[in-house]
Amino acid sequence: MDKNTKVGEFCKELRTHILKLTLKEFCDKTNYKISTLSAFENGRSSNMKILFAYLNMVEKKDRMKYLNEVAEKIKGC
Predict the structure, then answer these.
(1) CA–CA gap between residue 60 and residue 63 (Å, rounded)
(2) Which of 9, 26, 50, 61 makes an SS bond possible with 21, Cβ 3.0 to 4.6 Å?
(3) Which residues, at least 6 apart from 58, have a Cβ–Cβ distance to it below 8 Å?
(4) Domain boundaries defined on the chain
(5) Rounded Cα gap, residues 63 and 42, in angstroms
(6) CATH tag, 3-74
(7) What does the pLDDT look like over 34-77, one tens digit per residue?
(8) Terminal-residue alpha carbon distance, the chain
(9) Closest alpha carbon to 17 in 61, 71, 68, 57
């Protein structure tokens, strides 16, 4: 699995399990198009700027924890 796919899967898990948001709800809050975020979550986009949209949605105190988690997932790619 490549880096983009791993990051996308991580962000999808964050959105669905931690933030408890649908893709549409997340799009409404971040002003990204559904097609853009869907492509990112499925590893078809390498725009890491989008990663920070996901991280900015979690509580500030938890951002570093999630950033470290995504870094661990892509280690060795």
Answers:
(1) 5
(2) 26
(3) 14, 18, 19, 66
(4) 3-74
(5) 22
(6) 1.10.260
(7) 999 999 999 999 998 999 999 999 999 999 999 999 999 898 77
(8) 8
(9) 57
